[in-house]
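Re: folding output
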Amino acid sequence: MDIMPEIGFGLWKIDRDHCAKAVQDAIQAGFRHLDSACDYGNEREAGEGIARAVSAPLCSRDDLWITSKLWNTYHRAEHVRPACERSLRDLGLDYLDLYLIHFPIALEYVPFEIRYPPEWVFDPDAEHPKMNPVAVPLSETWGAMEDLVEAGLVKEIGVCNYNSGLLHDLMAYARIKPSTLQIESHPYLTQEKLLRLADHYGIKVTAFSPLGALSYVPIDMAEEKENVLEAPEVLEISKAHNKTPAQVVLRWGVQRGTAVVTKTTDANHMKENLAIADFALTESDMNAITGLNKNRRFNDPGVFCEAAFNTFFPIYD
């Protein structure tokens, strides 16, 4: 597929036992954009779901846009290609449509045979497990990502979780420019300046967690009261358009020019998440939803790394 579909199916937090079926169900529902990562720990099962869908046949490989991500422990140049090839092997693919640097965080290498995926801490059996950051310039990692494009393993490359300063720096040295910036963005974290900068550089933006707190409440990174789908403004707009609150918020994300990555294992919700092309929000609707911004970041290494991994490691000011 030449163009990334604006609505993607995300594989984060889908357990292995259900992942193959969820991927097949998502493709059956109409998803053609799958968002994966080494760190999600389910790429082999996702590959099984892709293989089933293609053999059914629900689609061909060329009908799909498949994204994966380079994990933090593979930032040294010599580890980038093996990491990509491992994802390709697990997914059962010859190439990726898009490969992203998952975080601008370089951690000590963990060999595949020791632990895969390696996750965040270097030694989980230590008395106080922690991250082991290493000094690897992001420019080194990007150069190895460019090599993947030239080798035909990936069609496009990009970054996740970069701030404006890192994006300016990347554009100063990149031989192959990033096609995509993937960031957390939802009505409580609109990131207007970063979206404007990406547009200036001709970089597409994909929003993960486009519905906000829902993915984070079960893992104690958000509170129930932070659910944007219950905001009065969203409920009012939902009623006016006869759409669900989730459809309204996803439509807001797409209408402002970002792709959105959604996640559900419920087949009905999959269809609902895709059914946002038959209505448009008014300028007033868009402004009301954008006005909900609180700069509330749920996925913040400066918070969760210290709490979960005994390591203070902020990447946002």
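--- second protein (sequence, then structure) ---
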Amino acid sequence: MALHRPGARAGRMSASPPAGSPRPRQASPREIACWVLYDWANSAWSTISITLLIYYLREQVLPGDAGRRAWGWGIGSSYLCAALLSPVLGALADARAAKRGWLAVTALSGALCAACLGLVPPAMPWLIVGLFVCASLMFELSFSFYNGFLPELADETQLNRLSAAGFAAGYLGGGLALALAILLVQLAPRLQLDPRTALRTCLVFMGLWWAGFTLPAVIVLRDRSPPREANLPWYRAAAAAVGEVARTLRHIRRYSMLSLFLLGFLIYNEGIQTVLSQASNFAKDALQMTAGELGLLVLAIQFASLPGALAVGKLADRLGQKPALMLCLTIWAMLLIAGFFVTRKAEFWVLGMVVSLVMGGTQSVSRAIMGVMTPPARTAEFFGFFSLSSKATSMVGPVVYVEVSQWQGPHAAILSLLAFVLAGWAIAARVDVRRGRAQAQSASL
């Protein structure tokens, strides 16, 4: 990820590092490359799970309503567990300066579960569901520790591009992994593989990709914050971590801008994530798109999202992080309004390409804002709250979409998500990033 240069534009962050920062030296290109590579690694799960895995689960392992419910409840339960565990595990990782260890545990165990999805025979459906839930949970938990390294590797003059480059690498890696998996399925007859075996092979490949490209981050990255409770037994450290989280919540008023941002992020991210998770349902119900057509669109969006994430990172350099976020959310609002009028597949493709330009950018600039307003010594803990904010209402948007679609149709359902984006936009507009940065530097828990 290219690092952006400091500048003197009004509204930009100061180039000086925060007081008490745990960064005694500048991050090396090797460290930055290995950090970025984890986004490349885990995105194989992101793309293959929502395409080939969901098909395998619903069509071959648990056909009918059982597969649909297993997928929905599995995703929901893993999100809920991740939301509850992320702040506590993040606080524990900070207290013992163990983000690298926790990243290794969560990422590699998730990759192992993902690979086992293809090794376990379909005749053991509930073991497959259990592995799927565990892989999804580990995937979500790993981001608290991964994101926690961001403020340690980049100062305020580098956060935008570093965060954006991570997302860009993720879109490229996820798209490439999905393309290779689809190619294997297409070549299955020539390789004398039956379709089920080809799908299972793709799931093993998904886990191996995730694990293999995680290893550089696990080997190279090092926690830069000194441990506060390194000598405590793990159970006492865990109890202390719970106490730290409770103390953070009691003193959250010291971080009023961060709290306000997390609330806005919770709301607008719910709308965005629901758009992404329900887009295939909209395409099928409103436009009768086939699975093959959707697969091509997903691949196109993945690769187009790479320049989009980088472009928004540069825009944040030029305009400032908050204006870039406000612009992205405005585009999301316009997309949802336009979606209400879409009646042809070509129009849906156009919307998909526009989505690709702001999808990664919205997430990357949100992560950069979070990094700026995070206390340096508690990065994993506070990014645990970031994860909590992104998952706390994870079932609300899909329920709203499904119910509105049931009664009013898919076009009304997609328009209903506009309320999430507008409400989140209104709250995020009140965030003063400079003030939030000052609060992170001056407040001590």
